[in-house]
Specification:
Blueprint lengths: L5 E2 H8 L9 E7 L18 H9 L1 E7 L5 H10 L28 H6 L4 E6 L18 E4 L14 E7 L5 H9 L2 E2 L2 E2 L8 E3 L2 E5 L6 H19 L3 E6 L20 H23 L6 E7 L26 H4 E7 L8 E3 L3 E2 L3 H9 L3 E2 L10 H4 L12 E3 L3 E4 L2 E4 L17 E4 L15 H15 L1
Helix pairs in contact: 1-9, 2-7, 6-7
Keywords: Calcium, Glycoprotein, Hydrolase, Metal-binding, Signal
Pfam family, one: Sulfatase
Organism: Pontiella desulfatans
Length: 462
């Protein structure tokens, strides 16, 4: 069992907070590669998201909400631990069959923090923090897990344990797996098994390859069942539901395929929206919606190089795998009836890393003492306290860029989309208040600001 050092001062601080310690239920819905504009309430012209739009009307919509990385594993590690991923050994993306790697179990997750104050916890969907047993959700604070352990475009893991009665599909069996691993490989992964990924329950594969055309609905089904069981047992609950899409390859069920004006990508988003609505409706039916914090966001920006199968980050520049705003500024909505003002918007900078310390403060849970927390308590922002400002003087985009106030400094610029790539003249400085698309370099006009940010970035990188 993991030994967790807890910060007693944090407990004392929580006990004297404006809001006395409560135990609201908590639901975090995290999408994969969803762009900033890919929701009705963020301006999508051709994707209909009535349920998420309703969530925004009933909660707070953030305009300047950031993830700590522009790629999957690192972003998820930061959300769950409240730490910059580089500080906890998760610099990029984990792949199956490429070494024994994952989020080291000594790092404390939101689930572990909440279990310390009596929460039931469940992870559903994409994990992507290591597929070996010690890295799986069941060893990171979650009571149970159901989902695909990494990106939906990857491969089976050679050391995967298969459950008795595992459903093999598309002619798969153990011999087919052995033959594939004996055949041509792509850095340790069998080429013939590309996009064929396992569906797991706890620590075993129960379906291979996972039927991804129904996976969004099945994730919601699993979340709904967990909510029902928790309410029946009288336990506060934490549901972390990480949809596997709109990361490619894209799949939609027959009820949604071909229905969106945005093509298959839109079909996927609209199916996610529908199933988000099912979860919201279930909370209401059980009478716990007013006692539940719901967070809806994305792990990074859209995969623009996928063309029509990628999303849209407008009015931001670029997308996934870059340190421009389109890579790490994401849509985010938080609802908590009676606490978070309905129909509100927040333009202060906030981060996924803020979730752990904020939820700890709300629930009276202790903060982990052994890890370098970068997240801050943002309850003043969530409650729209008069004069509330971001608690972050700086936010670092990996080791290449930093934002402070309206200013953003790039030590180096990396582009992924050929059509919009420009001749980089880094280092660069942008005023996001006037230039959200990062198109006008004003470093020569404000050398003192650029120097201050450059020094902060250098210190962060040490």
């Amino acid at each position: 069992m993991k030994h967790i050092m807890l910060n007693g001062l944090a407990v004392a601080a929580a006990a004297t907070a404006v809001f006395a310690a409560e135990q609201p239920n908590i639901v975090i819905i995290l999408n994969d590669d969803q762009g900033y504009q890919d929701l009705g309430c963020y301006g999508s012209p051709d994707i209909k998201t009535p349920n998420v739009d309703r969530l925004a009307r009933e909660g707070m919509r953030f305009t300047d909400f950031y993830v700590a990385s522009c790629v999957c594993s690192a972003s998820r590690a930061a959300l769950l631990t409240g730490c910059y991923p580089s500080k906890i050994g998760v610099p990029g993306v984990f792949f199956p069959n490429r070494g024994h790697k994952g989020l080291a179990p000594e790092h404390v997750t939101i689930a572990e923090v909440l279990k310390g104050v009596g929460y039931s916890t469940k992870a559903v969907g994409k994990w992507h923090l290591g597929d070996h047993v010690e890295f799986l959700p069941t060893n990171q604070g979650f009571d149970s897990y159901y989902g695909i352990p990494y990106s939906n475009d990857m491969y089976p893991a050679k050391e995967m344990k298969y459950a008795d009665g595992c459903l093999f599909r598309e002619g798969m069996d153990f011999k087919a797996l052995d033959d594939a691993f004996a055949g041509k490989s792509n850095n340790g992964n069998p080429r013939s098994m590309k996009d064929k990924v396992p569906l797991m329950r706890n620590e075993e594969c129960i379906e291979f390859p996972a039927d991804q055309s129904t996976i969004t609905r099945r994730y919601a089904d699993e979340g709904i069942q967990f909510i029902s069981e928790s309410v029946k047992a009288g336990n506060p609950f934490f549901l972390y539901l990480a949809n596997s899409m709109p990361h490619t390859p894209l799949f939609a069920s027959p009820d949604f395929k071909g229905k969106s004006a945005r093509g298959l990508y839109g079909d996927v988003i609209e199916e996610i929206d529908h199933n988000t609505g099912r979860i919201l409706n279930h909370l209401k039916q059980l009478g716990v919606d007013k006692d539940t914090i719901v967070v809806f966001t994305s792990d990074n920006g859209p995969w623009l190089v996928k063309g029509a199968h990628g999303g849209c980050a407008l009015p931001l520049f670029e997308g996934k795998m870059t340190r421009f705003e389109g890579g790490q500024r994401v849509p985010a909505i938080i609802r908590w009836p009676g606490k978070v003002p309905a129909g509100s918007a927040c333009s202060e900078m906030a981060l996924t890393m803020d979730l752990l310390p904020t939820l700890a403060q709300v629930t009276g849970a202790a903060l982990p003492a052994q890890q370098p927390l970068a997240g801050k308590n943002i309850m003043d922002l969530l409650t729209a306290k008069k004069g509330a400002k971001t608690p972050h003087e700086y936010f670092f985009f990996g080791d290449l860029a930093v934002r402070s106030g309206d200013w953003k400094y790039h030590k180096k610029e990396i582009f992924k989309v050929k059509d919009t790539k420009r001749e980089s003249k880094a280092p660069t400085l942008y005023n996001l208040a006037d230039d959200i698309g990062e198109s006008k370099n004003v470093i020569n006009d404000h050398p003192e600001i650029a120097e201050r940010l450059a020094q902060a970035l250098e210190a962060h990188n040490r």
